[in-house]
Write a structure and sequence with these properties.
Elements lengths: L4 H11 L11 H9 L2 H11 L1 H26 L9 H11 L6 H17 L4 H7 L2 H26 L1
Helix pairs in contact: 1-4, 2-5, 3-4, 3-5, 4-5, 4-8, 5-6, 5-8, 6-8, 7-8
Amino acid sequence: MVTNPIVRALVIVLATAGGAGYAPMASGTVGSLVAMPLVPWLARVRDGSLPLAIAIGVGIAALAIWTAGRAEEIFGGKDHSRIVIDEVAGMTTAALFVPATWLAAGLVFVIFRVFDVLKPYPAGLIDRRGRGGFGVVGDDLVAGAYAGLVTRLILEVL
């Protein structure tokens, strides 16, 4: 249980992506929009240093898993709608696969939202059986990887 008030406040700010999780409707979509500027930025980092970009992606995923697990305790219930750091982690995962353009970021956003809702294998399995922070974030990491790969394929074909 998160009892330290400073840690509690930090968890809430991170889990809600600075408050985006408090959106009255479609909080996951709002969380994904908040993360959209990270896509061209992280893709640019990747173009300069793949190991650094992967380290940033892994760091965001690890922070999201830790934060989401603590936020479930604070908000109550599994994968509470206020927790949107999982969308941030999913969008940054997608960024590892796409060019550093706003067109790619826009496509990633749309395709990620579709995959986040549809939960193609193994995302649905992780969503149903995963526990704690990994259960909240794992399906979004899969959706992000799929969104990044599909976006890359679309941009290559066009």
